[in-house]
């Protein structure tokens, strides 16, 4: 099983001050490290959030954050999934079940994981799987201690 790491999981892995840093590292060491993925949306999300000077543990410019993401990608077990799924016209997505714009990215990442035969790894307990056909099977909730 390959796990697509969502933005919060990636940030928790690279930011020692993140509230879920230890949980992310524990999960990654025990479960995720053998087969894990990123995609343009998750990588760009990390760069956008962590590269913002208002981010609490701002390490520097977006260029520096891109280097950090690049180092993370060089770890064993990583694969890169291109954004090769569309919510529009997808047989895996019931568009009528996307109720708010806030659900779009999560639904997309869940659909991407499903299409690639993996699971979306997240801390987000409120993520709705309703819009993706058999979405529950493509979701992996990481336990926080």
| SSE-based structural type | alpha/beta
The CATH architecture is: 3-Layer(aba) Sandwich
Spans of 5+ residues with little confidence (pLDDT < 50)?
A: none
The overall strand count is 5
State the major sheet.
Answer: 5 strands, parallel
> Helicity, in percent?
25-40%
CATH names the topology as Rossmann fold
CATH superfamily: 5'-nuclease
Entry summary:
The longest helix is centred in the first third of the chain and has 12 residues, at 21-32.
Q: How would you describe this protein?
A:
The chain is α/β, with parallel strands linked by helices. The protein has a single domain (3-141), classed as Rossmann fold (3-Layer(aba) Sandwich), CATH 3.40.50.1010. Helix content is 38%, strand content 11%. It has five helices and five strands, in the order βααβααβαββ. The protein has helices spanning 7-14, 21-32, 40-50, 62-73, 104-115; strands at 3-5, 36-38, 78-80, 119-122, 139-141. A five-stranded parallel β-sheet has the order 3-2-1-4-5. Helix 1 (7-14) crosses helix 2, helix 1 packs across helix 3 and helix 3 packs across helix 4 (62-73). The longest helix has 12 residues, at 21-32. 34% of the residues are buried. The model has no long low-confidence stretch (mean pLDDT 96).
Topology of helices and strands:
Blueprint: E1 3-5, H1 7-14, H2 21-32, E2 36-38, H3 40-50, H4 62-73, E3 78-80, H5 104-115, E4 119-122, E5 139-141
Parallel strand pairs: 1-2, 1-4, 2-3, 4-5
Helix pairs in contact: 1-2, 1-3, 3-4
EC number: 3.1.-.-
Cofactor: Mg(2+)
InterPro entries: Mtu_PIN, PIN-like_dom_sf, PIN_dom, VapC_family
